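STRUCTURE:
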């Protein structure tokens, strides 16, 4: 019998963690954090907080249901904090258990571990290539299948068991025209469908949207259509997007170069994500600068304010997060933002009440200063309804356990599954954090 422990991400978007058990052995997939619960964001060092404090706040998964299990491996699907952010807090509960992921994911995980102040993480970390099947016990093996998302080297994680494959698809979309060549491995996904998929564990964040999620090429076109317009009249140009969205950052660098401006990255998380991407050859930083220290930020922004037409500032703060660079600018710090400046939001608002409120406050402050705002030059990295339908049809799983979403999102996925011939309670199971789904 296969058991699916739904530990985190089954009541919210965030703090993702799932465990798959077969014959007494367990593979954990992801150890994420829920950022909004502690008013933190990509620029804040939450490693300084205790795991007890974070768990009490509901910011990290409660892994106690599997603490005494025989865990043989930890697999990381991709490098977003809602999938790897709790690794420094939770991996020490499973000392010396190996952690696997793609090279970019593992290096980001190492960065999180390096900053951990409460625990010593002794787990070995292994960079795994697409297509490689890693035998982690006599009965269990893991595989990383290439998929597209809003961060490089994302994976669909496959756990091979004697009863069939357990396929964990959190997060993904089917991007067939990615500007920098990333492409889903349709061939392998179809092979898995023929070989036999026992359980599919898919994200459900945008399943209610009755469309197919557009390609990143659309976002690139939206940005170029605005920035490279011959009639553009703007002195100060400021763009904000997810620090981990390397493709989007590459697009902004290329746009700055075409405009004859210098791209300047400001924010600790932007330095981290682009630095690791550059090591792996995932981004070309030609013509750009990255500011790391507070002194450098203050000095350079003074220079920029005197010749705004020469620069494109790329900053953190698209959700209005306290302490992020754009929020500080709106508060009158660092840079005299005002009527001469245009702010481009190349990110949507993450749909929870805290983010919506923070973003509203940020926009209000910018508007009061006379800043021109261009919003939503963006496409999502998450699968919409037709992406999900295609995955179900490719894999033809026996059972489905929707994940990565609020309860309403999980039920929207169940509705789609019923359209495809499944039945809630029979072969589609809606779960909650801390529960276990037993697969017959």
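SEQUENCE:
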């Amino acid at each position: 019998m296969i058991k699916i422990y739904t530990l985190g991400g089954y009541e919210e978007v965030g703090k993702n963690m799932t465990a798959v058990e077969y014959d007494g052995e367990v593979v954990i997939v992801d150890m994420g954090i829920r950022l909004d619960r502690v008013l933190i964001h990509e620029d804040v060092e939450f490693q300084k907080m205790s795991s007890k404090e974070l768990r009490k706040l509901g910011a990290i998964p409660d892994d106690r249901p599997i603490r005494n299990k025989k865990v043989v491996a930890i697999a990381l699907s991709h490098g977003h904090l809602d999938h790897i952010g709790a690794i420094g807090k939770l991996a020490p509960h499973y000392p010396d258990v190996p952690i696997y992921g793609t090279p970019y994911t593992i290096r980001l995980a190492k960065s999180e571990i390096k900053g951990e102040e409460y625990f010593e993480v002794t787990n070995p970390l292994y960079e795994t290539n697409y297509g490689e099947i890693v035998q982690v016990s006599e009965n269990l093996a893991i595989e990383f299948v290439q998929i597209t998302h809003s961060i490089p080297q994302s994976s669909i994680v496959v756990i091979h068991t004697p009863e069939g494959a357990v396929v964990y698809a959190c997060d993904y979309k089917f991007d067939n025209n990615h500007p920098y060549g990333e492409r889903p491995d349709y061939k392998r996904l179809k092979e898995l469908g023929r070989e036999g998929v026992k359980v599919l564990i898919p994200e459900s964040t945008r399943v209610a949207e009755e469309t197919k999620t557009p390609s990143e090429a659309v976002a690139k076109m939206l940005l170029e259509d605005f920035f490279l317009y011959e009639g553009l009249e703007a002195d100060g140009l400021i763009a904000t997007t997810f620090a981990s969205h390397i493709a989007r950052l590459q697009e902004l660098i290329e746009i700055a170069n075409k405009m004859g401006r210098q791209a300047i990255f400001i924010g600790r998380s932007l330095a981290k994500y682009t630095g690791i991407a550059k090591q792996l050859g995932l981004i070309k930083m030609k013509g750009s600068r990255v500011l790391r220290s507070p002194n450098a930020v203050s000095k350079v922004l003074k220079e920029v304010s005197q010749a705004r037409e020469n620069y494109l500032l790329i900053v953190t703060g698209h959700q209005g997060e306290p302490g992020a660079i754009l929020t500080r600018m709106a508060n009158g710090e660092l840079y005299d933002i005002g009527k001469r400046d245009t702010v481009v939001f190349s990110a949507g608002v993450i749909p929870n009440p805290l983010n919506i409120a923070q973003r509203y406050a940020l926009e209000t402050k910018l508007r009061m200063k006379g800043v021109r705002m261009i919003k939503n030059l963006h496409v999502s990295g998450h699968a919409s309804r037709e992406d999900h339908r295609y995955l179900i049809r490719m894999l033809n799983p026996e059972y489905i356990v929707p994940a990565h979403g609020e309860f309403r999102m999980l039920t929207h996925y169940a509705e789609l599954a019923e359209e495809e011939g499944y039945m809630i309670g029979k072969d589609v199971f809606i779960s909650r954090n801390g529960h276990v789904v037993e697969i017959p």
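REMARK: The first strand starts at residue 2 and ends at 8.
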